[in-house]
Amino acid sequence: MSSSRRSLGLALDRVWPLVVLAGLGFYISLVPQSPNDFWWHLRIGERVFTTGAIPTTNMYGWTLPADHPFTYGAWLGEYLMYVLFRWGGASVLHVTRTALALLALGLVGLEAKRVSGSWRLSSLAIALSGLMTVNNLIVRPQLWSWIPFMGFYTLLRRFADGKLRREWLLACPVVMTFWANAHGAFVLGPVLLGIFIVGEAARILLRWSGALAWRDVGWLGFILALCFLTTAVNPQGFGIYGYVFDLMTDPPSQGMVVEWQSPTPEGIANTIFFVSILILFLVIAYARYRPTPTEALLIAGFLWLAWSGQRYVVWFGMVAMPVLLYALAQLLPQRWVRAPALKNALNVVLAAVVWIPVLLAQPWFVESLPLPERYWELVLRDARIAPLQTVETPVGAAAYLREHPGGQLFNEMGYGSYLIWALPEQGVFVDPRVELYPLEIWEDYVRINRSVRYNELLDAYGVDRILLSLRLQPELAAALPQDARWQLEYEDDYAQIWRRN
Q1: To 10 degrees, what angle do helices 188-205 and 293-308 make?
Q2: Which among 121, 90, 23 is positioned nearest to 321, based on CA atoms?
Q3: H helix count then E strand count, the chain
Q4: pLDDT digits over 92-109, tens only?
Q5: What is the C-alpha to C-alpha distance for residues 253 and 440, in angstroms, rounded to an integer?
């Protein structure tokens, strides 16, 4: 009887990762949706769904010709977003975001457990990696890259460790067919393969313990070639690599968008990123373990990538944490790393109970939670179009413009994304398709926001209406009431619309 009860229980060590995942799931579920990279992607997905064709031009920005070419490289990710939205609204997209994030972090934890042998250390890997994702949790096509990336990484690590048959790697080119159409981060798949090829070849040449055979390295090269070929199964063919390169080197994106810039020790994700680097180097310095050539290349390559842009910190967290936890397992006392797995039925109850707050934080129930009022100062309550939208979503202003259309509109950038969805016929001055607009337009946009020669610039563009954010454009919002050339025609708690007299 006692043996049967123990078999139905759960070891406390296995509860730790579940508790950490539940805590992260609660946090992720509450991350509100800013309009910037959500609504315009949703509109493109809707166009692909209804027309059966992938757009190739600007269409919505009136400061450029409507037929100005533009590449929608994430068309499949946008299409999937719209299909989910059409099926269950934005709530389903929020839940999908949370589920994919937790699944990816779970894969990080499983890989950390495999290499360290410890569920406790696995929970630490999940926590650190999860905290490094919090800058990348808005609903956008990038969410379709999390699982393919961790899938590639997990398969390659296990193959390099001799824990996986080579046939499993044939899944990589199949996944690449999807990934290359869903999001530009697909290039990280070939990057991972290239790192493992170089690292494992060096491991052989250096006569490193546990090295693969040359035929296995050749198999990795074969898989890389297949992946390169399958990326061509997209509307751009091999030109998709040029699209990604142009995006990563686009001057407006690199110079004006925070997530494309190097991280600074501010905010949760960036702070944990810097702390994890310090811990990683200290642990490797004092542990009895030395990273393999492949692990050294992974850490160096993805650290350089993360250092070049905040949006890449998430990938460093996923790659580096299993390496860190394996080295830490060599440093800590083994009685702590591998504690006795004593099962207890109450642990099952505990593992289930910690997920109740995650359930209550989903969009259908979240407004019933006793969350701080400061949270609701940033999030719209009872948003008619979708739940958990930030106050930067101009729901009321767009409804007013629908009833009072017309004019050449100057708008806040994120507002442009929502207008593309809610009022596509209006046309926008700029929107978050940053690489679409020339640097000159963005420089003028910044000057106008700062109320520097704004009337001169607005006249040059022919602007006769302004939609501004009181929070994001305070200098322009302060200048217009003092300017007799502009008349306020709409105002709510977050936005204003001005018309030229």
Answers
A1: 150
A2: 121
A3: 23, 6
A4: 999 999 999 999 999 999
A5: 13
38 contact partners, CB below 8 Å, separation of at least 6: 138, 139, 140, 417
Quick check: 117 pLDDT over 90? no
**Rounded to whole angstroms, what are the CA distances from 305 to 191, 273, 312?**
11, 12, 6
pTM, two decimals, is: 0.94
Count of alpha carbons within 13 angstroms of residue 24, beta-carbon side: 32
CB 388 within 8 A of CB 94: yes
- Res. 474: pLDDT tops 60: yes
Main-chain phi, psi angles of 207, to 5 degrees? 55, 45
- Measured distance CA(212)–CA(197) in Å, rounded: 10
How many whole angstroms separate alpha carbon 469 and alpha carbon 447? 15
* Residue 134: other Cβ atoms inside 10 A: 19
The model's pLDDT over 323-367, given as tens digits with 9 standing for 90+, comes to 998 888 888 877 666 766 667 778 788 888 999 999 999 999 998
Instruction: Give residue-wise pLDDT tens across range 122-174.
Output: 999 999 999 999 989 999 999 999 999 999 999 999 999 999 999 999 999 99
The answer to whether residues 253 and 36 touch, using CB atoms and an 8 Å cutoff, is no
Two tokens at 259? 């997530």
Residue holding tokens 């919090």? 134
Single out the residue of 110, 111, 183 nearest to residue 148, CA to CA: 183
Task: List Cβ neighbours of 223 (8 Å cut-off, separation of 6 or more).
Answer: 169, 170, 172, 173, 193
Residue type, 483: D
- Whole-number Å distance between alpha carbons of 144 and 100: 8
pLDDT tops 70 at residue 73: yes
Distance CA 475, CA 480 (A): 9
pLDDT of residue 1: 38
Domain ranges for the chain: 2-30+92-337, 31-70+364-501
Long-range contacts of the stretch 267-273 (C-beta < 8 A, 24+): 267/134, 267/135, 268/131, 268/134, 269/131, 269/132, 269/133, 269/134, 269/135, 269/136, 269/310, 269/313, 270/135, 270/310, 270/313, 272/128, 272/131, 272/132, 272/317, 273/132, 273/306, 273/313, 273/316, 273/317
Determine the Cα–Cα distance for residues 221 and 16; give it in Å rounded to an integer. 38
Give the closest residue to 197 by CA, choosing from 180, 211, 178.
211
- The one-letter amino acid at 213: A
pLDDT at 205 over 90: yes
**Average pLDDT for 271-292:** 90
Neighbours of 242 (CB within 10 A): 12
